[in-house]
Amino acid sequence: MEKIIDENKQGESLVLEQKEGNKRKLFIESYGCAMNFSDSEIVASIMTDQGFNTTQKLEDADLVLVNTCSIRDKAEQTIRKRLEKYNAVKRDHNPKMKVGVLGCMAERLKTKFLEEEKIVDLVVGPDAYKDLPNLLAEVDEGRDAINVILSKEETYGDISPVRLNSNGVTAFVSITRGCDNMCTFCVVPFTRGRERSRDPQSILEEVNDLWNRGYKEITLLGQNVDSYLWYGGGLKKDFVKASEMQKATSVNFSKLLELCAKAQPKMRIRFSTSNPQDLTLDVVKTMAKYENICNHIHLPVQSGSNRILKAMNRLHTREEYFELIDNIRHIIPDCAISQDMIIGFPTETEEDFQDTVSLMEYVKYHFGYMFTYSERPGTMAGRNMEDDIPEATKKRRLAEIVELQQKHSAIRTKEHLNTIVEVLIEKTSKKSDTHWSGRTPQNTVVVFPKARYKIGDFVNVKTTDCTSATLIGDAVGYSKNN
Ligand code: SAH
Ligand code: F3S
Questions:
Q1: Does ligand 2 lie within 6 Å of residue 223's CB atom?
Q2: 129-154: string of b/e by CB count within 10 Å (b at 16+)?
Q3: CA–CA distance, 300 with 321 (Å, rounded to integer)
Q4: 62: Cβ–Cβ under 8 A, 6 or more apart, which residues?
Q5: Closest CA to 228 of 258, 261, 195
Q6: Which CATH architecture group holds 2-147?
Q7: SS3 for 83?
Q8: Fewer Cβ within 10 Å of end Cβ, the chain: N or C?
Q9: Are 237 and 143 in contact (CB under 8 A)?
């Protein structure tokens, strides 16, 4: 399962403030990456205008929407199981219930969904959410409805997302949609379409609005944030045809970061995800220049072997990656770096795997998300390469790097032991009602006694103890950012 979002939130039903007069009940849940969770907030905003309020009880729902993930086969199986659950609830408690599938599985399977899963009434791809009112009208009249058209323009820049299950402190702001990178293992370019950037003006308006409503941290979201490029709209590949004026006033990712950092100098700013081939030193320098941009880069590498990187269509070598890491560390010495890895990509030899191990030893990532390769139908690797690494070998290699990552995380966490770290308080600790939980700019979780502080405060914490991924300490006062 995707771990990019807090594991606890996977499949958690989403709730928002009830709007008076809205009679119908919507149960909405999301799986997969942060972008799906962000999209569900756009969908909830559209549905609120259609007379729906959210409910957490499946038994009460007039409509169930599930935002789905296709990134690995296991993610799809999870959704299939959920559909079985909806089926049982509909049969036993709630015969009027309608079910809609959103997101990447909707896009990948299209009408097959309606054929294979009798429970499904509505199939809506990631670029078609504005069509929901029309599609819903079809469903209300007893017909199945589907829209999986991918768009070259849609960015939902004009819809202000409602914040679902929010802690009121941290929020996602989407800046690009789709991906043009075509990594050979990845289904995203097929399910989310061509890459488009959102108007910086609407991004800044959202950031300012979030600040005015008390939010203290945003994460700028995109499949590949570093290729953000706004020149008045249009696909990135068409930038060459843009006018001189458009080129001169264009906004790339480092400019966008700077605009956000300046617009709200006390707002913490994060971003995800960076493909190493697209991360520029300009971005790293902008991070160094503005204190409110958090010193953490999620920099998935997938493999340490040059041969495998090439087969994955990742457009950098192991040596170039090391150079990038060295440059980041030179410009921002305390920058946290995290990874995604795929183990058991077709043809991966023991030697290739050892290259991944030695790359991890070099970087010593702060944390990471590691997966075994899952063949996705329709991708280049799915079509042209046999999934030839035995499951047992994949599992053994995965266990080895998960253990190695834990060791490195522990080393990285310890580096902050017996120091003062700045923490933004997000919520009550899962393990203790009397403790707060928050994160440092480097994204390390810190837990400490609540004392006089409250959610949304920036505090300085003196760290006294740690586990492999969590710092434990005592607050010693508000930080200067509070
Ligand atoms: N750029 C995206 C990456 C999306 S997928 C982002 O914003 O995060 C997240 C991670 O899932 C990838 O970095 C990769 O490590 C993993 N992944 C993607 N396709 C996969 C596959 N077919 N099998 C196993 N893992 C995969
Ligand atoms: Fe997927 Fe590669 Fe884009 S992992 S989302 S095709 S950068």
A1: yes
A2: bbbbeebbeebeeeeebbbbebbeeb
A3: 10
A4: 24, 25, 26, 52, 96, 97, 98
A5: 195
A6: 3-Layer(aba) Sandwich (3.40)
A7: helix
A8: C
A9: no
Cα-Cα end-to-end distance for the chain: 36
**Identity at 335, one-letter amino acid code:** C
Residue identifier of the C-alpha nearest atom 5 of ligand 1: 71
| CA dihedral of residues 179, 101, 271, 312 (deg, nearest 10) | -40
Nearest residue (CA) to ligand 2, atom 2: 183
Q: Are strands 170-174 and 98-103 parallel, antiparallel or unpaired?
A: unpaired
Note whether 364 and 412 are within 8 A (CB).
Answer: yes
- Pocket perturbation via mutation, ligand 2, pick of 186, 236, 277 by most ligand atoms within 8 A of CB: 186
Phi/psi at 231 (nearest 5 deg)?
A: -135, 30
Q: Measure the CA–CA gap between 209 and 212, rounded to whole angstroms.
A: 5
Q: How far is the CA of 373 from the centre of ligand 2 (A)?
A: 14
**pTM as predicted:** 0.94
Secondary structure of residue 381 in the 3-state scheme: helix
Q: And the tokens for 28?
A: 């909405």
pLDDT class for 4, splitting at 50, 70, 90? very low
Give the atom of ligand 1 at the shortest distance from the alpha carbon of 222. Answer: 7
Whole-angstrom distance, CA of residue 437 vs CA of residue 435 = 7
CATH code that applies to domain 420-478: 2.40.50.140
Quick count: other Cβ atoms within 10 Å of Cβ 51?
A: 14
401 touches ligand 2 (CB under 6 Å)? no
Q: How far is the CA of 314 from the centre of ligand 2 (A)?
A: 9
Q: How far is the CA of 145 from the centre of ligand 1 (A)?
A: 30
- Between CA 178 and CA 257 the distance in angstroms is 19
Every domain of the chain and the residues it spans? 2-147, 295-415, 420-478
Ligand 2, atom 1: closest residue by C-alpha: 186
373-432 per-position pLDDT tens digit: 999 999 999 999 999 999 999 999 999 999 999 999 999 999 999 999 999 999 999 999
For residue 288, the one-letter residue type is A
Mention every residue, 6+ apart, whose C-beta is less than 8 A from residue 173: 38, 203, 206, 207, 210, 218, 219, 220, 221
Give the rounded distance of the alpha carbon of 116 from its chain centre: 29
Class of domain 295-415: alpha beta
Backbone φ, ψ for residue 288 (5° rounding): -70, -30
